[in-house]
Amino acid sequence: MNTTEHSEFLSFKNVHIHDTFWTPLMERVRTKVIPYQWEALNDHVPGAEPSGCMRNFKIAAQLARPELDYGEDSSAGHYGFVFQDSDAAKWIEAAAGALAWHPDEALEQTVDGAIDIICNAQQSDGYLNTYYIIKGLEGRFTNLKDNHELYCFGHFVEAATAYYEATGKRKLLDAMIRYTDCVDRHIGPEEGKLHGYPGHEIAEMALARLYGITKDEKHLKLAKYFIDERGKRPYFFAQEECRRNGGTESDGMDKSGDHYHYHQAHKPVREQSAAVGHAVRAVYLYSGTADIARLTGDDALLEACRRLWDNIVKRQMYITGAVGQSVHGEAFTFDYDLPNDTAYGETCASIGLAFFARRMASLAPRAVYGDTLERALFNGIISGMSLDGMSFFYVNPLEALPESCGKDQSRRHVKFERQKWFACACCPPNVARIIASLGSYVHSVGDDCVYTHLFVGSEAKFVAGGKNVSLKLETGYPWRGHVDISFTVDGGEAEFRYGFRIPGWCASHTVALNGDNALCTEKDGFAYIKREWRSGDRLTLVFDMPVTFIEANPHVRENAGKMALMRGPLVYCLEEADNGKELFRLRAGFPAHHSIKVQYEKDLLGGVTSVSFMGRKLKGWNKDDLYRAASEAAYEEKDLRWIPYYAWANRDPGEMAVWINK
Amino acid sequence: MNTTEHSEFLSFKNVHIHDTFWTPLMERVRTKVIPYQWEALNDHVPGAEPSGCMRNFKIAAQLARPELDYGEDSSAGHYGFVFQDSDAAKWIEAAAGALAWHPDEALEQTVDGAIDIICNAQQSDGYLNTYYIIKGLEGRFTNLKDNHELYCFGHFVEAATAYYEATGKRKLLDAMIRYTDCVDRHIGPEEGKLHGYPGHEIAEMALARLYGITKDEKHLKLAKYFIDERGKRPYFFAQEECRRNGGTESDGMDKSGDHYHYHQAHKPVREQSAAVGHAVRAVYLYSGTADIARLTGDDALLEACRRLWDNIVKRQMYITGAVGQSVHGEAFTFDYDLPNDTAYGETCASIGLAFFARRMASLAPRAVYGDTLERALFNGIISGMSLDGMSFFYVNPLEALPESCGKDQSRRHVKFERQKWFACACCPPNVARIIASLGSYVHSVGDDCVYTHLFVGSEAKFVAGGKNVSLKLETGYPWRGHVDISFTVDGGEAEFRYGFRIPGWCASHTVALNGDNALCTEKDGFAYIKREWRSGDRLTLVFDMPVTFIEANPHVRENAGKMALMRGPLVYCLEEADNGKELFRLRAGFPAHHSIKVQYEKDLLGGVTSVSFMGRKLKGWNKDDLYRAASEAAYEEKDLRWIPYYAWANRDPGEMAVWINK
User: Fold this and answer.
1) Is there a contact between A207 and A222 (Cβ–Cβ < 8 Å)?
2) What fold does the segment set A443-543 form as a domain?
3) A619: chain B residues, CB-CB within 8 Å
């Protein structure tokens, strides 16, 4: 492994964002989503299905009585899904991100109060899962496959590390270290321990993050064990099922591993090469695997990560960065299978893809990782949240036809209006936590090099060339391709390489250093300048950002003969609100020479750059003739107006399409 | 109602088919399907899931002991679905058709033996349903919605009338008259009777057919009652559920009728105007409704039939005559929603559409009915059976990609290989019964006119102009558009109008009478000649049959920019066996002037006319680039070879497509 390629991303604590695009989004998360979610976790949202989340912790902590308020479902005391705890963890992580860039005493007090309740529920041996504390501890660690115990554990470790990074407070961190010790006592390679691993991955990357703080080898070892053990034969998930049912391992258990594709446990991670199964689980596993590959220098794991990465990005990723094509199992399907109208593309899966991208970028500076991170962030992730921050998409289709969503059960998962909150509330807090921690996706620092992966207006502080350096980035991205980067070096100057990603969508760019053309070396899509950086040094990057018609690989059957539109990192779409019904009748008219109008409209959808040009629309005929002898297709001229995909479904409900006929 | 437009189809008993296309198919049914199905009904097919059907009758007749042979499932004695009885009925009906055109003493004895067993199971009050006889008669008529009791009843009435028509034997007919009396004692408008109707329709048309033989008003009245009562409020299905559950009618029952779309019981039939719900149920209901409309002269029912017909044929019918777009509920969805790759298009639903078409044609001679009958017969129906008669499609997609069927659960219902027999064996015997009775779809006789709806080589006998007339039809249809019709009149001459359908696919035709151009009047797609027909009169019809590229209405989103190919009544398709993989990359190249090769190939797929021309194929690019800036599409020339759709999936398993880009 070439460890000189490694770098570590700066914490959100050290990258302060002030960006024309992202700051309003982060403010939306801070001022609307986080407070709303806190109300939801406490069952204070009128008319909404109760969450039960914080109440479960109070019951587990014996601060509340189980029998109150919840009607029929209260009989067993625990309310909601087995993974209800994770909502609190995601909320704390989101709050941590928000606190890191916007100190807020009231919010911090609220989080501290939540942590107090949560820690009160922790058992003397460190165990902390309200489902089993309330339902009976004898059941714990008996169904790792289905019951999300290690998933909630992982989310809490994430929350604890984030809150520690943001505030320096150790209470939750210490609690989670104790919980980690508890898990470690029950699961591991030693005899007498369970040889198990999470049914829903996340603990792997969470423990890697914890190790980054504690440097306790035990934490790294546990994460590595989860990855090493996964998919080994005999299958742990089969064994634990036998134990629960009182059978023996040979009793009708799945020996082929086919049933474990959903959990990516069909074979050892080192042998995997195609993304399979539940997409969120998958990308979380791959993210954790990349962490462990880097922390342990394990080449076989790195190779597995690269194969899985390639499989996703070259075969199974929507143009929006959505992944997981099928509603069935919320899962990956097969190479080049990218249906637009039945796409699942769970918001959380795109978030997980961003996690994976960040970790791959940490392993080696290649532009494809930042490109994909950017693709997911600007499209498939933020499409999950409405412009007012009050409603959310779980599923992110690339084509929506309201009638079809209502009348065809195979498309019922596709919504054309964002929902207030979901009974399974995984996506909204996940969107909140990634946006709130956006600062930790911008720059990374390696042995002799500082890398910029995302162009987000911000001020970053780090050590390079032995000096404290501050890097200020100003940009009108994603609407304009102009980026100004200025350096301040404590003590005058510092020698290091600085590299920035040349976006994959950009065919032509210029770089100026202090006003003069700069000579860069380029490698793997990064441009590098090595010099003694001085305070006042200023880099000016100009990325050409024309409207680009995109085509999909001919292996993608759903997009044969079609085009999509991008400008910079943004995928565009057509909406009924601008273009009328039956978007499928539209044609771009490519490759005729278009006069393309690109216009920033500050009053449209919170301020977006729209794209318009004269396309064509298939003329209608007698609606009573379903079939007829084909004539040369008759089109009428039709002005097509495109908006950024992320902003769709913020006006009257209607059709949407990303891909139309050329 | 204009009853002068009415006509009655000749029975298969009076239309003897000898046709180059259909006779081999009928022979296949007679010599392979019918014997195989008899073995299946008797659980004699090695390796196949037992049917239990005939055994259920033996148990019900106390000719066999219930506890033998069936392992776990035998506990209650009855084996298989609640509608298992209907398989025997369909088989008898198929055998009746076969016996009508090919006397076969051994087969007739087998049927008689089956009828003996079946009649032995009949209860003293006429009741005959093995599920309830075996499970307990106290349960009968308590779940008309779900338990298919009146469905099995209807199928047996169909079988009884068919066998009587074919052989003149009354045993089963009399048994079914007694069963009808039994049903009539339990269900009807009178107080004390159930105000119910079938959960799965068919009894409506069966009783109409029975009435055609018995002329017993009671039989017509019961059929009419089923149709009149359907969809009235309060909903009978809700009421019977309450009775079963001991609740009252107001107990949480569906009051909106929304849940009854599946059963077409959401509102009264007279008020329905869109085809909804389970497609087979729907077209069976509409067929029965058309029968009752004709037999009772009920204009409101006729109008409902016409609205429903139009909705199907103008909005919801695949080019192959397949209906029922969605696997969910095997159901209709909504107007212009005709996805190709997730199409359900159950073979039985196309058969039901043929039933409906025949009845609509009986109400008024309009070519659209025969056109649709022909479309379904030559495409969506016979595609259900393999060329060797030994395997069957339940689902008839218009596009199949094997990988997708295997790896995407939302397409798992789509098969690319026909199956031996289904656990739910409804389609194979249904194909058998319609093919075996094809003679009853050819001609109809009205007050002063004889109509030919289908061009099938045959000899028909009927009375017209007061004389016995024989009409001999010879044709190379569907491969050639040449039809010779010769008349023989007992006693020299008979005056009547003769009308024949001008196929909707035919843009140009000629008619000669005894060698000279004939002057026809035309109305609603029929051409008419009125004269004194004499023995030796000969009509020669020549229908131009060019290869025709077809386009779908622009409202059909899945076919925007695409074309299909027809020649005569046949829809064509592309198969991987002829055209390689990734058929979606092919383009017809329309409207370039093609040199189209049309060739009858006697050794291909049992003898078919193939169509070939030079089209284009989207060139591939680097398989690792999922997206790129669009260039002018690069195509390579590619010879496209089309085969008739019905013959697909008879070679190596692979892809198939009906619609490709123009």
Assistant:
1) yes
2) Immunoglobulin-like (2.60.40)
3) 554
> To the nearest whole number, what is the mean pLDDT of chain A?
93
Best probe of the A interface among B403, B557, B581, by most A CBs < 10 A, is B557
pLDDT at B408: 82
Residue B415 distance to chain A (closest CA, Å): 17
B591 token code pair: 């409207």
SS3 A175: helix
A 10 A CB-CB count for A191 gives: 6
pLDDT over threshold 60, residue B249: no
Q: For testing the chain B interface, which of A309, A626, A635, A661 should be mutated: the one with the most B CBs within 10 Å?
A: A626
Is B553 in Cβ contact with A334 (below 8 Å)? no
pLDDT band at residue A427 using 50, 70 and 90 as cut-offs: confident
Overall average pLDDT of the B209-217 stretch: 98
Find, among A457, A452, A588, the residue nearest to A527 by Cα: A452
**ipTM attached to this prediction:** 0.93
pLDDT of A259 reads 79
Say what the pLDDT of residue A72 is: 46
Residue (of B398, B386, B393, B400) closest to B425 by Cα position: B393
Q: How far apart (Å, rounded) are the C-alpha atoms in residues B154 and B338?
A: 31
Name every chain B residue with its beta carbon within 8 A of the beta carbon of A317.
626
Is A426 among the residues known to form the active site? yes
Higher pLDDT, B64 or B363: B363
Q: Given CB atoms, is A508 within the 8 Å cutoff of chain B? A: no
Bigger pLDDT: B259 vs A341: A341
Chain A touched by B403 (CB under 8 Å):
yes
Q: Does B619 touch chain A (CB under 8 A)?
A: yes
Cβ pair B618, A554 in contact under 8 A: yes
Q: Are A615 and A588 in contact (CB under 8 A)?
A: yes
Q: Give the single-character DSSP code of A278.
A: B
In sequence order, the 6+-apart residues with CB closer than 8 A to the CB of A75 are: none
pLDDT at residue B251 is higher than 50: no
pLDDT of res. B232: 95
A328 closest CB neighbour out of B404, B410, B662: B410
Asked if pLDDT for residue A408 goes beyond 90, the answer is: no
| pLDDT score at B250 | 54
- pLDDT tens for B61-113 read 998 876 655 554 544 589 989 999 999 999 999 999 999 989 999 999 999 99
Look up residue B67 and give its amino acid.
Answer: E
Q: Where are the alpha helices (DSSP H) in A483-597?
A: 576-579
What is the set of active-site residues of B?
330, 426
Residue written as token pair 């601060």? A63
Three-state secondary-structure class, residue A640: strand
Domain locations in chain A? 10-230, 443-543, 547-661
Distance CA(B605)–CA(B597), nearest Å, equals 18
Query: CB A627 to CB B507 under 8 A?
Result: no
pLDDT band at residue B554 under the 50/70/90 scheme: very high
| Dist CA A541 CA A518 (whole Å) | 10
Which residue among A548, A555, A619 sits closest to B629, beta carbon to beta carbon? A548
Q: Does B652 touch chain A (CB under 8 A)?
A: no
Q: CB distance A410–B410 less than 8 Å? A: yes
Surface of B (318-337) touching A: CB under 8 A? 319, 325-329, 333-334, 337
Contact A403 B337 (CB under 8 A): yes
Beta-strand relationship, B509-513 and B516-517:
antiparallel
Query: What secondary structure, in 3-state letters, does B406-469 show?
Result: HHCHHHCCCCCCCECCCCCCCHHHHHHHHHHCHHHHCEEEECCEEEECCCCCEEEEEEECCEEE
> Which residues of chain A neighbour B620 with C-beta distances below 8 Å?
553-555
B504-545 confidence digits (pLDDT tens) = 999 999 999 999 999 999 999 999 999 999 999 999 999 999
Question: What pLDDT, in 10s, does the model give residues A173-189?
Answer: 999 999 999 999 999 99
